[in-house]
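Run log, item B.
One chain of 322 residues. Sequence copied directly from the ordering sheet:
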Amino acid sequence: MTQASGIDELPAGRTALGAATEAAERRSARVVARSLFQLTKPRIIELLLVTTIPTMLLAQRGLPGARLLTVTLVGGALAAASANTLNCYLDRDIDAVMRRTSRRPLVATGARAIRPGEALAFGIVLGALATLLLGLLVNWLAAALADGAILFYVFVYTLGLKRRTASNIVLGGAAGCFPVLVGWAAVKDSVGWPAIALFAVIFLWTPPHFWALAMKFKDDYAAAGVPMLPVVAPAATVARKILIYSYAMVAATFALAPYVGWIYGVCAGALGAWFLAAAHRLRRSVAAGQPAAPMRLFHLSIAYLTLLFAAIAVTALLPWRG
C-alpha cells in the first residue's frame, strides 16, 4: 500500500512542478513586457504619430526643436497606448469571441501573462505619464487634449457607443483625430483652423477605413454582438456610405490648400482621385454581386492618409510656400 501510494504521488508532484514552471515562464519579465507592449496596439500608435509629425511641421512652418518634437511624440504615444490598453481591458469579453482579436494578451488561450487588473493599472499609469510629460515639458493645452482623446476613446466610444449603435465608429472615431490637435497645440499653445481642418479630414476618413475592415470581419462582430454597420446593414448600403464619406473627406482636404499651398493641393487632388476610384470599385463590385475585396480599400486608406500627411510635411519644410 505504501509503495502504491508513493507511485501515485510522484506523477502528481511532477505535474505540479511542471505547472509551476510553465506559470513562471508565462510570467517572466520578457513575456510580461511583450504582453504589455501588445496591449498598447503599436500599429495604431504608428498611424497616430504619422499625423502628429506633419501637423507640428505645418504649425512651425519648418522643423520644430528636437526636444519639443521628441517630447510631444513620446507623450502622444503614451496617451494612445493608455487608451488602447484600457480598451483591451474593457473589451476583453468580446475580444475573446472575435478571431481577429482572440490573440490579444488578456484573452489568448495559454498566454495570459497579464491579469485584467494589471492591464487596468498599466493603462492608467500610461495616461498619467502622458499628462505629466506633456503638461510639464510642452504645455497644458497639449496635455488636456491628449487626456481628452483618452477619455473620449474609453468612455464615449468603448463604453458608450461601440456596443449600442451602428454609428459607433462615425462618432467614436473622433478619438483618433485628437493627435493633430495635440501636435498643433504643442507648437502654438492654441488650436488653429488648420488643425481643425485636419481633424475633419481624419474624422471623415475613419468610417471608410474602418467599415472596409468591418466588412471583412462582419461575422466576428456579429458573434460578439457589436452592431458595426456591415453587421446591421446590407453590403450595398455600406458601400454607398463609404463612397459618400470618401467624397466628403476628399473635399475636406482641399480646405487646407489656401494655407498649405498649391503643391499640397495637387497632391491632395491626385490622392483623392486614387481613393475615390477604389471606393467606386468597391461599390461596383458589391452592386454586381462580385467579391468585394474590402481589405484592398482598407490597406489603401492607410497608404492614402500616410501620403497625404507626407505631402503636408514636405510642403511645410519648403523654404517657400508651395
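Observations after the first pass:
- Residues 28-189 form a domain with the Tetracycline Repressor; domain 2 fold (CATH 1.10.357.140).
- The two ends are 92 Å apart (CA to CA).
Flagged for discussion on Thursday.
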